[in-house]
Design goal:
Elements lengths: L1 H14 L4 H51 L1 H16 L5
Helix pairs in contact: 1-2
Length: 92
């Protein structure tokens, strides 16, 4: 879009801003740019919401894992489960 803007502006400077053709091209360019911003802003806001949700979920999992690591009972049960998984025989 910047290329089109630069082209329109350079033509406007060369030919004069009062030219009906230049004015019409500038209006069409502005309309195209507004339309593109509206269309892509919806996509960007949806992408932002998805990323925000993913980050929030990961943050929750990290906090949950941190709480479990600091809980002595959770450490003991995790160690027991780890031993059971390796040997296949439950240990008490």
């Amino acid at each position: 879009m910047n290329f089109v803007k630069r082209l329109v502006y350079s033509l406007a400077v060369e030919k004069g801003a009062e030219s009906p053709l230049i004015r019409q091209v500038a209006q069409r360019t502005a309309h195209m740019e507004r339309h593109a911003v509206k269309r892509h802003s919806l996509w960007l806001s949806a992408a932002y919401a998805e990323v925000k949700r993913d980050v929030s979920n990961l943050w929750s999992k990290l906090q949950e894992g941190s709480r479990k690591e600091n809980d002595p009972q959770e450490r003991i049960s995790h160690a027991k489960k780890s031993c059971e998984d390796k040997s296949g025989v439950p240990r008490d």
